[in-house]
Amino acid sequence: MEYVMVFLIGIFATTVGTLAGGGGFISFPAMLILGMPVHSAIGANKVSNTISSFSSFFHLYKKKEISLKECFWIIPVSLGGGLSGGYIASKISGEHMYIIAIILLIFAFITSFKGKGSFTGENRLKMNKFSVPGLYGIGIYDGLFGPGQGTLMFYLFCYLKISYIQAVGLVRLATFSSCFGAAISYIATGKIMWPLTVCLLLGSLTGAQIGVRIAEKLKPRYVKPVLRVVTVALIIQMVVDRLY
User: Fold this and answer.
1) pTM for this entry
2) Distance CA 23, CA 15 (A)
3) Greatest CA span in the chain, whole angstroms?
4) Which of 48, 68, 82, 193 is most buried, by the most CB atoms less than 10 A from its CB?
5) pLDDT (tens digit, 9 = 90+) per residue, 21-46?
6) Domain residue limits at 185
7) Which ranges constitute the DSSP H helices of the chain?
8) Domains identified in the chain, total number
C-alpha cells in the first residue's frame, strides 16, 4: 500500500509542478508523513525529478515550443547550483535538516504570492546579469531542499518576459539539470531508499506527461490557489507531526 501511495503522490505532485512549480510542496512533506527520513525523501525527489522533468522538456522540444540552442547554457548553470546545494545538504544532520526543511518550505510558500505577471511576454531567454545568477541561486536552493524551486523559476522567467509555455519547458530543463547534480550527491552518500524512489519516479513520469499536455491549454492561475491550500495543510501536518 505504501508503494501505491508514493506512486500516486508522484503523479499528483509532478502534474502540479509541471503546471506552476511547487510540486515538492506536495511530494516532500507527504513522504515525510509516510515515515521516510528527511535526506532520503529529498534524494527520492531529486532522482525522480531528474527523469520526469527531462521527459516533459523533451515533449515540448519535439513540438518545437522551445529551442535547445536558446537554452542549452541553463544546463551547466543549474547543474552547478544543484551540485553545490546537494553537497551542503549532505553535511547537515537529519535533525537539523528537518527544521531547516520546515523553515524553507514556509519561505517558499510565502514567495509563491510574489510576482503577478501573466506570462504573455515574447522575449527569448538570454544570458544576462539576472538570468545567470538567478538560475544558479535557485539551483543551489533546489539541491539543498527543493520545494518551491519551480515556482521561483516561473517568477524569474515571468520577470524576463518569457511566454508561459516556453517557461514550462525552461523550468523543466533547469529542474533536470539541478536535480541531476543533487541526485549524484545523494546517491554517492547512500541516502537513497531505492524501492520507494522507483515508485515515486514512475508516478512522476506519468504526472510529467499529464502536466505538460495540460500546460499547453491551461494558465497557472488556475493551479496556484489549489497548490496554496494543499501547501498550508501539509505545513500544518509537518509541524503537528514533529510536535507530537
Assistant:
1) 0.81
2) 8
3) 52
4) 82
5) 878 878 988 898 888 998 899 899 99
6) 2-243
7) 2-20, 24-33, 38-62, 68-71, 74-90, 94-111, 131-144, 149-159, 164-188, 194-215, 224-243
8) 1
